[in-house]
Input
Amino acid sequence: GKEARTSSSVRASATRTTRKMYRGGGGFAKPENALKRAEELIRVGQSKAALSALHDVLTSKRHRQWQKALESIMFKYVELCVELKTGRLLKDGLIQYRNSCQQDNVQSLEEVIKRLLKAAHAKADEAQKSSDEALADEEAAKKELGEVEDLDIGTTPENLMLSYVSADNTKDRKDRKDVMPWFKFLWESYRNTLDILRNNSRLEALYAMTAQRAYNFCLTYQRQTEFKRVCEIIRNHLANLNKYQDQRDKPDLQQPETLALYMETRFEQLRVAAKLGLWQEAFRTVEDIHSLTLLGKRQPKPQMMAIYFANLTQVFWISERYLYNAYAWYKLFNISRSYNKNLQEKDLELMATAVVLSTLAILPYDTKVAHGLYEVELEREKAARVANLLGFAAEAKRDSSGGALSRTALLAELKAKGVLQLAIPEARELFSLLEEDFHPLDLCQRVHKVLSALQAKQEECEMSAASPVEMVDFSQFVSQLQRVSTLKMVNQISQVYTSVRLDFISERVVFYDFGDVERLLVDAVRNAHLAVRIDHRNKVVVCGAHTLESDKIKNHISRLAERLNVACGMIGAGEAAEEATKRKRAAIEEMRAQVDQEHKRILARKVIIERRKEEYEQMLQEKEKEEESRRIQLEQLRAEEEKKRLQTESVRREEERIRREMEEQEAEETRALMEAAKIRGQKFEDGEKVDKVQLRQQAIQEQIKERQEQARKLGRLSKSMDHFERAKREEQISMLMELHEKRMKDDLEYQEKHKEESQAKHRQKWERDLEEKHRLVKLLDEKEQFQTQLYQRREALQGAG
Output
């Protein structure tokens, strides 16, 4: 009992001391002292008091300028906030620390945020692991976590009532009580961090890193509601960035680095949305990417655009927008073929097959969902919007139906660009059956065989690592291709027969029973694609309409006119051929006469086009230069303002530093004078006032006395050294003379010896040279004789020449 009372008294004393010292945030002259005090409070179990102390230091005006000690304080502050789950204090501390270090050391803020997220994740994982150990397996734990749909919503009265009357065991309720608060705190940490780092050019890299980690958190724990909120938060940040143009340190989306960070964040958001199956959010992300492209006036890298269109294919397929899905596959194929040099031939073949199959899977008619003028305009606007997302000009792709994109235009483009030839043989055969051949009786059986062959090749559809998609799933196109095949066959039957039995169609449509076929036919008739009528009383399908102006009658009349023209030509074949030959020759002559003029006209038109292109490019360059110069001027103004602010701040800090150094120097001098006086024997009482001038005069007098004593000692020492040096020189004279005489004698002996050796060597060399001379004298006669012969020979040669 005595120890408990002592411990409680220590805690109470520490708490009182803490409240007394930290009031107003100015209790510590140095931040290191606050950190030491916080550690002492933690050791006695006063974590809240330690957190309050560190919070006061962070918000104090005395410590607004960043220093290394503040980083250590922030690390401890983050750990305490995570331990106590105090999100509000954590956000306040992060805001203060951001204001302190964003000008001097952004890297420190990054380390603090990494430490925060790591600690929060560790606590959440620890709670999850302890829950997993109590529950039988991890799937049960994830199911328990998934029961909470929204981490921002606390415990409602209904849930509280259900917890008492439900059949959940105590462990399940304990899991909700222990595990979910940590996940709520982790989610709150991500949200607060994104709010703190938003729309700041100095913190944009840290902002992108935090956003991507938030996406991974949502993906790891399958938090769909939180992912939607993260996307909405980031979308609002971008909207505020465009709305408020005069903010300080505003990111500039015209800069390539800034735009790349924002693009990478959106592409990661698109990837996670696809993984979570949030296709509506994925489509909104696609629109965000397109808006960023327009704001930055730069196209993303081809690798990113490939990922963009790969996700678009999934979004449009899930939303049953098969026309847009086919166009997305087509854009993905074009980008991969143009820019991906590592793409293998098999990958290109599979992607071309996916383009062909997705195009064939489009229904041959547009579904009519709009009934009024306003709804028609709305649908047209949506089509134009999607066309812009896909990178197609809406005006250039309008066909007779008025749509921005069409199945007919895409099929024609695939044939013209050679995409069909790159696909596998089964896809080409399917294209031929559905678009070129006429098989009203067995079209579905033929298509069924081709589709079975396609499904058998599914195992060979894995793509290489260089491809933006992992594999092409042929089976996803099968059901839609069966619908298209059924409609095509019924359309061909209606061109041949006026009426057929119901079982006639049922036998030939091998994919569905007649109920499904009837639903398809009703939808096609409602959208004006087929002109058939089902008579259940007589069990027949009546083909064609009852009006004279139907499309079928028009086709028959035009076909009859064409055949009559052919018959008339066959009657007078000879005369017609001769007339055709004459017309052909006349046309050739006329063409030859006009070819030069046409060539000149084309060249002139080409020159005009090139000139207009150059003028347009020059105009764009001038516009970019103006924008660049404007941006540079704004940056210079901001830089000058920032420079002035930094200079003012630097002058203020320098003045404070000089004043602080002067005070410290004066205190140090006083302390040194007192220590010197204590050494001399002077005593000072506690609390006694010390006269610094008197201490300095006493110290100067002591120094004068010491110098005088030292000068007297040096005089005596110099006299003794002079006498010693004189005696030493007198003793050295005789010894130096003996050494000189000995050295002279040795030099004479060495000279005589060297002289004799030199004379002997010289005589030996002279004798050798003399012997060599006697040996060479014998050759003089022969040398004279040879020289004479040589002169005579030369004279003879000169006389002959």
